[in-house]
Every structure is written in structure tokens, then in C-alpha cells.
Design brief:
The structure is a single chain. The protein is built from no helices and nine strands. The strands form three sheets. Strands 8-7-6-3-9 form a five-stranded antiparallel β-sheet, with no helix packed on it. Strands 1-2 form a two-stranded parallel ribbon. It has a domain of about 50 residues: SH3 type barrels (Roll), CATH 2.30.30. A hairpin with a 5-residue loop joins strand 7 and strand 8.
Amino acid sequence: MGLTEPTIPTGQLALSGPSEKLDAAHWPVRGDLAHIRLAGRCFVPHYAVPMPHRLKVAAPLRRTAQAEGEVLAELPAGAAFDVLDMAGGWHWGQVGDDGFVGYIPADLLEPAA
């Protein structure tokens, strides 16, 4: 299954070997959560279906949920961002279907139409 394939696994899922070690900068997986499309490839306690959002204004995508966190990319207003987790005023997710993975302040995002 490629990174850009939008399919969501269905039916019985099984991890048939060790979890894959994936590049965290481009794959939406962390120790506690992963994008639902990674079910069967990575073992985590929870999988999330992305919630499509858009940036209201240009903003930096950060590696951590901190205002002084390392900037991974500068995103333009209107950029697509798939939210996978929301906590502490930050949203964690992925830019589009296969872009960088990181954190954006919640108040800079709005649900996509």
C-alpha cells in the first residue's frame, strides 16, 4: 500500500510481522496513534480517521506542540491539513495526503468544506 493511497482498511486486520519503522516526518504515526491507512503495517494502541481541515492563515508546521518547537515547513493559507489528534490547543496531523506530519495551533485551522 503506497503512502498516497486514500483507502481505509476493512475487515479483519492482522500484523503479520514486526511493525515497520517509518519516517515520522512524512508518515502519520507516533507511539500512541497512527493514520487508519497504516493499520496492519504499524502496531499502535489507536488508529484515527483523518478530519480534513484548511489553514485560515499562513502558519509554521512544528515538530512538537510548542510555540518554540522546530519548524518543519511554512504552510500557506488554505493549505490542506488532515487532523488526526487534538489536545492542548494543538492539532497533530499531516499536510495533505503525503506531506509533512506535525503540529499546528488549533485556532489557525478550520474544517474543510
